[in-house]
Request: fold
Amino acid sequence: MATEPHPVLETTPDAKAARPSPPARRRLLVPVLVAVLLTQMAVAMVTGAVRQTPTIDEPVYVATAAEYLHEHRVRLNPEHPPLGKLVVGVGVALARPHVDPSFTGTQEAAGRHLLYESGNDPWQLMLWARLPVIALTLLFGLVVFAFTRDLAGPVPALAALALYAFSPDVVAHGSLATLDVPAAGFLLTSAWLLWRARSRARRYLPLAGAALGAALATKMSTLPAVPVLAALAALSVCARRPRGFRRALLGAAVVTVTAVAVVWAAYLVVDPRLRWDAGATHVPVVHGLRGHLVRLLPFPEAYRDGMRIQFGLENRSWAGFLFGHVYSGARWYYLPVALVVKTPLGMLALWAAGAVVLVVVRRLRPAAPYVLVPAAVLLASAMTGARDLGTRYAVFLPMFLAVAAGCVLTVRRRWAPVAVGALVAFVAVSSLRTYPSYLPYSNEAFGGPAKTHLRLHDSNVDWGQDLGRLADRLRSSYRGERVWLVYKGSGVPAYYGIDASDPRRVPPAKVHGLLVVSDSAVAEARDGLAVLLRSSRPVDEVGDSITLYRR
Reply:
């Protein structure tokens, strides 16, 4: 018997157009994955911003931003330029706090007065102040993606963005109204624009200079990047014209002059008359080479005096803590060791592999100076500092080295995608396990967040962020008990309903009940507090940053 042929379904041109081809579907998948990664990062940061009480530095920046908005003057916090605080000020302006113009105390007192003594809601005000920094942190994620895509393509760019989005340090500090992440992100943006200037110098050199100026107008610790990025500007010009020495110098000058102009613009936005009363602030005298270099800086006098204040802070002896050892001063190896503790293990492996790939792979080698050299110079500069207080001083590394790590996928080996995918997944799991407490993160080799306080202190672990959580814990589990508190932070315990006494003000024999101590205070404990801790037993912890003892 003859069989009837199967009918052929005809596809109309309209139906073909409506069905996306496989390459089109892949192109749609990339922006969807970018949105997913940035959304989870935003959720992590906003959750932290909602739950955390003010960290040590934040009230000063918020009070300074409020003064910029209401008084239009540079008085508080001159040791940092205005731009980062102007970013915070966007949120402060939206919160519309009550500001007391007659208050004339120190910058620390001004922060406390604004948050707790002026009729404002500190929870609401801090959330609004943090939101602009969160938005900026998400935008820098797009810079990481774009930079890596320019070097290696969309799939490596997704890997780089994943490392950035799951970086505990970036999530932790990107959710705070502080200056570290904005300054680092502006530097990364400048390096990326300089890379693009290799093909279109006229368009990208001024933009790179503006990004560099934004970094300089946020934190003075970015100054060592100026000669590096100026040299990269010259290199970008020479990429098109190998013998264009004069053009190369012109390119470096464009970037430098634009950066200087942005710094001046930041001060002019605060106060168009550029008023600055050095007598109202203790500005130390800086001698020698440092003093001469400060005088040569082509910036407003307030910026130069801020540099002098920074040098004065560097001349102080700060308490450090590393692997159970308390010391005075700084250790050159502190930051590398702290980074090994506080960076996910998979991320460390991909950073190292990415640096090697950038140097070894011929087609990527021209990008190595733009990715690796700024990071190396900034790290070397940070390692010479006098304050061993946290990996936040090197928060640029998770940004620059995420770009390098993504380039590992350009290695044409079968194992490369599998290895990179497994390591990125390991990073994601390690990061998500610390949610929502990212500040005290440490990797699995060092016991995780619960053990970080045994090895590091200050902003690595306990920056005063968990006072609100402590109040909740005391109400739910220790209601009615006598509480003794040693808190290191900027919050006011009484505002959160914590009725506690300072055990250091009475003889140890009179301290009975619940002893609550910030882990940074535990790390630096000496004399009376050390005696109390030795005769107490830990019974609870809050946020991996505050320990509760029973006496």
